[in-house]
Amino acid sequence: MKVIKWGECEIAISRIVLEDISWIFEELDENIQITSVECWEQVAFATILALKSFERGTNKAKTVKGEILLRLAGTLQIGEAITKVGAKKGENFLVAFGKNACKTLREFLKKKALKEVPFSDCDKEKVKELFEKAALVEVL
């Protein structure tokens, strides 16, 4: 698990493997999102951008969770974002955000008996490209 401090907020990111995704959407709290992307760094950046957009009132989605997906997919269409970066069978990232995100994510993992899988940093050039895609939503 990676934990990032951002102001008074924590962002906690974990990687899990799911064989069946049908149940998880109903189980996620309002401050936990699941996504299937390449790099944990892009999840962290998209989450920060989503939180900032709600602070500024420039959000495109109705919820922070939806805004995270839009940022990760680089689109304004939620359906397209879900298709591109929504949870899929196999490896997914869970991201929790808020004052006690680390505790929230740990409790969710334990309650649902989800096993974390290790993950490492992505290539810097790849991360730069993914950050640009996430930031693009600002100007769309």
Strand and helix layout:
Layout: E1 2-6, E2 9-18, H1 24-27, E3 32-35, H2 40-56, H3 64-73, H4 78-85, E4 90-98, H5 101-111, H6 124-136
Antiparallel strand pairs: 1-2, 2-4, 3-4
Task: List the main descriptive attributes of the protein structure presented here.
four-stranded antiparallel β-sheet, PF0523-like, 6 helices, single chain, alpha+beta, 140 residues, globular
Q: What oligomeric assembly is this protein in?
A: single chain
The CATH topology turns out to be: PF0523-like
Q: With helices defined by DSSP (H or I, 4 residues minimum), what is the helix count?
A: 6
CATH class descriptor: Alpha Beta
CATH architecture: 2-Layer Sandwich
Say how many strands there are: 4
Radius of gyration: 14 Å
Shape verdict: globular
N-to-C span = 32 Å
Strand order of the largest sheet: 1-2-4-3
Determine the CATH superfamily.
Answer: CGI121/TPRKB
Low-confidence stretches: none
SSE order: EEHEHHHEHH
State mean pLDDT (0 to 100 scale): 93
